[in-house]
Design brief:
Length: 284
């Protein structure tokens, strides 16, 4: 079903509700509801019927002060969905009002979700918050990453003013596996401190969780640790109860994304039983 939600306000509030379901051997986009500038063009099947790939579109290409975006995606039992974006998300300088993005992802029994957005760039002077919550059933599979860039380093811009709040939570069967909170103020001493960002401008996190991870973790760690970011940035890979996590801290968003893609190519066959097939949109 594809339909419009009630009319959006001129304040660029936007909402996207997606629901994926299994229909025979095919994963279908059963529900696609939106208002405002958030869309999915259509369901794609580059790997065949089992995996439904969707590209999330935000036509304004950036989030300004006062904008509020909400994305909800549910993957029902036995379905497999892959969500990505066509380019970097941008958080623009604010004239005073806060912007926000809330993401809620749920994955049913025997279902798989791959959450693979491109990087988010926080402009100097942005005032924003980003909240992500992932709810996993007992027998579900998840791979997701996020890359955050403070300032536009390529043009010499630093994050000297503004504020960015982060919240990320992953639950399995209602039990928290991971809860992380962060707040970054422009020119905060922690951005330069060795205990914080250590002067870096880009950080990234990749997380995966699946039922067989406890017995696969040691070999996955060994395999993943054979690859490293091409820019030599600080990085780490570790296994936690129910999770395998990789971290990047450096100054090159492309290097972070390429490293995560390399890790995804190692993890995906173990987690999803499928070789990695790079989404075509990443090459445009």
């Amino acid at each position: 079903m594809t339909s419009r939600l009630p009319h959006a306000s001129p304040a660029w509030h936007a909402e996207l509700q997606l629901r994926f379901a299994r229909s025979g051997e095919r994963t279908v986009l059963r529900e696609n509801r939106h208002f405002g500038p958030l869309r999915v063009q259509k369901a794609l099947y580059p790997e065949g019927d089992a995996v439904c790939q969707t590209i999330l579109l935000h036509p304004p290409s950036g989030i300004a002060g006062g904008d509020q975006l909400q994305i909800r995606a549910a993957v029902e039992n036995g379905a497999h969905a892959q969500l990505t974006t066509p380019g970097a998300g941008k958080w623009y300088r604010s004239g005073g009002a806060d912007a926000g993005q809330q993401i809620e992802l749920s994955v049913g029994d025997g279902a798989t979700l791959e959450w693979l957005p491109q990087e988010s760039i926080v402009f100097d002077g942005a005032r924003a918050h980003m909240r992500t919550r992932v709810s996993l059933a007992a027998d579900s599979r998840f791979i997701g990453w996020d890359v955050l860039c403070l300032g536009r380093a390529a043009s010499g811009e630093r994050f000297l003013s503004g504020r960015f709040d982060l919240f990320y939570r992953i639950d399995r069967g209602g039990t928290p596996l991971w809860i992380e909170r962060g707040r970054f103020d422009g020119s905060d001493p922690m951005l330069a401190s060795p205990a914080g960002w250590a002067g870096a401008t880009v950080c990234g996190t990749l997380v995966t969780s699946f039922p067989e991870l406890p017995v696969q973790a040691a070999q996955l760690l060994e395999d993943c640790r054979r690859t490293a970011p091409v820019d030599g940035a600080s990085h780490a890979i570790t296994a936690l109860p129910g999770l395998l996590m990789a971290r990047y801290l450096g100054n090159n968003s492309e290097a972070a994304r390429l490293w995560f893609a390399a890790l995804w190519a190692i993890i995906r066959p173990v987690c999803c039983g499928r070789a990695a097939l790079t989404p075509r949109i990443w090459n445009t």
